[in-house]
Design a protein that fits this description.
8 strands, Spore Coat Polysaccharide Biosynthesis Protein SpsA, Chain A
Length: 205
């Protein structure tokens, strides 16, 4: 059963230009017609996230027009060209202002994540409130999505995006209370960068 008594939000990062893909990753569609962004938002909601938001940037207008009924708030990062960290900050600032006690951060191209993985991240965070972050691991490799506590989100939001350490991986490495959560799904260490990657995934969806 998914946890429900919490205010952990889900944040999908979908602000990049998808240059290698040639079209917005968020709008890639399976044979059933579901877009990748819809799949990711539904997965986070079904996993137990209290609320789901999507950070968009390069293709904000295209995504908004293509998915007018998307069951998630769209947050426009006007500084998306500064990199993914700027989108992370835009998402967590929005979540904090809405009363989130933590956040699940999911890059839109981290495909095939089972609901069970996100539910396990949430449950682990709720059982261990001292943790700053929970990171899924498959065969010793760290992956996505990650859980970030409220205090960790606040620290990230206060960073100067221009400094070298303004990267999530660097901040996780420097944090004291980060837990690696072993999972059985290789999807946590997989993402898509090319159309061939997408075709392999969508053919199984």
């Amino acid at each position: 059963m998914k946890p429900t008594d919490h205010s952990i939000f889900g944040i999908v990062l979908a602000a990049g230009a998808s240059q290698r893909m040639g079209e917005p990753k968020a709008l890639l569609a399976t044979a059933s017609g579901k877009t990748l962004l819809e799949i990711q938002c539904n997965m986070l909601a079904e996993s137990g996230c209290r609320r789901v938001a999507v950070v968009v940037g390069a293709d904000a207008g295209t995504i908004r027009k293509a998915l007018p009924a998307l069951s998630a708030e769209l947050i426009v990062n006007s500084e998306w060209e500064k990199g993914q960290f700027s989108s992370l900050v835009a998402g967590i600032r929005n979540a904090l202002s809405a009363g989130a006690c933590g956040a699940i951060i999911l890059p839109v191209d981290a495909i095939g994540i089972p609901t069970e993985v996100v539910t396990a991240l949430i449950e682990t965070a709720l059982r261990n409130p001292h943790l700053e972050a929970v990171v899924p691991e498959y065969e010793g490799k760290k992956g996505h999505p990650v859980y970030l506590s409220k205090s960790f989100c606040e620290a990230l939001a206060a960073l100067d995006p221009g400094q070298d350490s303004a990267r999530l991986d660097a901040q996780l490495k420097a944090a004291c209370n980060v837990m690696g959560l072993p999972v059985n799904s290789p999807s946590v260490v997989r993402n898509i960068n090319t159309m061939d990657d997408w075709k392999r995934f969508s053919s199984q969806t």
